[in-house]
Amino acid sequence: MFRRGQSTTTAYLFLAPFLISTAIFFFYAFARAIYYSFTDFNLFNSPQLIGVQPYTQVVADPSFQRALTNSLIFAVVTTTLQTIFALLMAVALNNKLRGMAFFRSAWYMPSITSSVVITLIFLWLFQRRGIANYLITQWQTYQPLILTFLIGLVVAQVIQVLLERRSGLPARWTDPALAAVSALASLVVTAGLVWAGVTGPREVAPFDYQYFADKWITVGGVQILSIPLLVVIIQNTFTTVPTLMLFFLAGLQNIPGALYEAADIDGATPFQKLMNVTVPNLRPVTFYVITVGLIGTMQMFDQVAVIGSAAPQDTLITLAFYVYTNTFKAGAAPVNLAAAAAIILALLILAMVFVQRRFFPSEAR
Amino acid sequence: MKKVLTLSLGLALLAASASAQTATKTVKINGYGGTDQTLVNDLINRFVKPQMAKDGVTVVYQPLQGDYNKALTTLLAANTAGDVMYLPGETVDGFVATGKILPLNGLVSTTPFIKSLNTAFTRNGKLYAIAKDFNTLTLVYNKDLFDEAGVAYPNNNDTWTSLATKLRTLKQKLGNDYYGTCLQPNFDRFGAFAYATGWQQFGANGKTNLADPRFAEAFNWYTGLAKDKVGVQPSELSAGWNGDCLKSGKVAVAIEGGWIVNFLRDNAPNLKYGTALLPKNDKTGKRGNFLYTVGWAINSGTKNRAAAVKVLNILTSPQVQEYVLQQGLAIPSRSSLTNSAYFKKADPGAQNAKLVFDGADDGYVRAFTFGPKGPDWAKPINEALAAVLSGQKSAADALKKAQADMTTFQSR
Predict the structure, then answer these.
(1) What is the DSSP string of A34-91?
(2) Cβ contacts from A onto B, under 8 A
(3) B95, B235, B375 ranked by CB distance to A128: nearest
(4) Which residues form the ABC transmembrane type-1 domain (chain A) (predicted)?
(5) Which residues of chain B are within 8 Å of residue A29 when distances are taken between CB atoms?
(6) Does B377 touch chain A (CB under 8 A)?
(7) In a domain, A264, yes or no
(8) Which residues of A fall below an 8 Å CB-CB distance to B?
(9) Average of pLDDT values for A307-314?
(10) Beta strand B126-127 pairing with B179-182
(11) Regarding beta strands B364-367 and B273-276, do their DSSP bridges make them parallel or antiparallel, or are they unpaired?
């Protein structure tokens, strides 16, 4: 209906808002950042080219080195954790169970909540008098009771299964019906022991761990991962797993059921099916999930900014935060250093994606 | 990054619409948000607008919410900042380096103002702002706790040792639920004690020496209070700052400036408190103190320089400062107001104001500033304080690391 030229014009017209904003806020901004990274720009002077000096300065800056280490460790640990958990959750949610719609939406909740709000909640959870420490204190207080109950449960289960087998019935160690009876019996025994005064809650001093302090997990004297960053890793995994799970879930729906039927006939265990059918067939999705995960974690900024001065800066500083703090200071700021750091960050992410493409082909085998 | 972008865009738009009005001669003032917003608007309506209206100039106050320094930096870089603006004493160096702050020499008379405050805003012989008001640190104490423990109130003759003894006795008498004082792991409070020993923030070569025995003396005294929980960090009491600590009624003494008065009036109206000057160092016999101050500065790019200077003069005039003092809002920067009747009143707020004023020239008083490299300068000290106060490091180890970090920082 349209002549060729006309339809192209129409297409560009519709694409224009997107193209213009990309050109201004991405390409132009990126070009400016590259230019600034070779100058002595401080927001207020007229920039003069000074070569690669900003880069050498940035690389020599100890807080940049810390930021780089923190970012890399954060990216690797978080991406690994979130990919594994997302896959397991997707597999669990792919079952046909009653009320699955509820679980799917409930598990997706953390992803739609603002990360700033979640960070504030985590800040409260991991305070010195926060819920994390409270729960640990409770666990220590009731440890004797819980242990008594668990031992009772195991003993009762063993006795029951042995009795069943002696009467010639095929009972598994994990039989749920027998477990329910065992739990009930163990509960009665524990209650009896508490009443008799044999066991009971202990008096313990409140667990008093400070999470947002200058504490590090060290390997051979080298500071690898700080405790505050570990809290951020837990939080980040908690909030990103649901989104990634959704991608895996979509991927799972595309795996032909016949493959699982064939595996069943061959007598594969659930774990073998996961490793030999599900994981290889999800390869394109996994590639996407890891790429998105790496880019997202390398650029992590908001959590660090919200926690702010609640934790010592070295424990949390990331590359994105380093760029931010060096751009927005009181008055003149080393914007050239910030630009150089931003370019290094961009190159790193680019390199990561290329390495991944090289060694983990995105095509399904 | 997205948020920052939207924010700066929004600000730029706002500023653009405001600058469009300059044709009708508008003087725009940038300052803090929060309580300052009401206060400055009140001042503008009462004192500035009536006088400026005669010249056909309108005056608007544009508060910058959130981090003032960052917001002002953005506006200055985009050439959309106000004609007159707050210039915080601790960030003078960074803003002077931008070249966007107008030197006031020859434009404004500096003689009526307290000398040390003028010094705080002078760089290389050029004065960049006139102090709007100032604050120093005082010792604010909870009278009931001292009465209950039967310990004498802190007074202006206390030394480090006598004050520590009072706090220890109080803690012993009142038991585990009560504390002598809150210790912020910050140079903002600790620095005053370091100054009392005669320690210099920057040596002759411009470097900071944390290995100085005088610095160590102050450090050991300050962190030594944490032994037996006589001094605790505010975070241990789920408090944000020393004022919160005092408000809780479980802490006997808070080291804070005059801003604590309004806070206590609003948040702990029944708390009976008194004020004393900071204790004297045993060896030097002097106290140390900080001058916290914010000045009025003029944008060097302003199109209405004459009007801006006039606005600045009105804002620092005796009438305005007397009004601010009477309202109990801040301590004036004019030396002539020392004789104000307000200082002789009997209420605890006025007495606190008197001691804040006296603190400005008693002992080793220095402007609260971090030097040319900005607030990061204080990081090694803050980290050392935090590590010792939370019991993770010994004072000697923490100081050693702090000195090493400081050397790296300053050689960058």
Answers:
(1) HHHTTB---SSSPP-B-TTHHHHHHHH-HHHHHHHHHHHHHHHHHHHHHHHHHHHHHH
(2) 71
(3) B235
(4) 68-356
(5) none
(6) no
(7) yes
(8) 25, 42-44, 61-62, 127-129, 210, 213-215, 301, 312-313, 320, 324, 328-333
(9) 77
(10) unpaired
(11) unpaired
Report the complex ipTM: 0.70
Are both A94 and A185 inside the same structural domain?
no
Q: What backbone phi and psi angles, to 5 degrees, belong to A199?
A: -130, 165
CB atoms B392 and A214 under 8 Å:
yes
> In this model, does residue B135 exceed pLDDT 70?
yes
In angstroms, the CA B312 to CA A110 distance is 51
Considering the domain architecture, whether residues A225 and A118 belong to the same structural domain is answered as yes
User: What pLDDT digit, counting tens, does each position of A78-97 carry?
Assistant: 999 999 999 998 988 887 77
Nearest CA in chain A to B412: A61
Cα separation, B203 vs B215, in Å, equals: 13
pLDDT, tens digit (0-9, with 9 covering 90-100), for B59-103: 999 999 888 988 999 999 889 999 999 999 888 888 998 889 999
Domain-by-domain residue ranges, chain B?
26-135+291-359, 138-289+369-411
Same domain, A295 and A333: yes
C-alpha dist (Å) from residue A341 to A42, A57, A59, A355? 15, 10, 8, 21
Q: From chain B, pick out residues whose CB is under 8 angstroms from the CB of A330.
A: 69-70, 72-73, 88, 91, 94-95, 374-375
List the one residue out of A357, A319, A317, A358 whose CA is nearest residue A338. Answer: A319
- Residue A16 inside a domain? The answer is no
Please give the model's pTM, rounded to 2 decimal places.
Answer: 0.77
- CATH number, domain B138-289+369-411, options 3.30.70.660, 3.20.20.150, 1.10.10.10, 3.40.190.10: 3.40.190.10
B2 to chain A, any CB pair closer than 8 A? The answer is: no
Specify whether A225 is located in the same domain as A338.
yes
> Does residue B70 sit at the A interface (CB-CB below 8 Å)?
yes
pLDDT tens digits for range A125-135: 888 778 888 89
Q: What is the number of structural domains in chain A?
A: 2
Please give the residue of chain A at the shortest CA–CA distance from B74: A328
Q: Which domain holds residue A121?
A: 54-128+215-359
Pick from B70, B96, B236: which is nearest to A328 by CB?
Answer: B70
Q: What would the two tokens of residue A237 be?
A: 């995994």
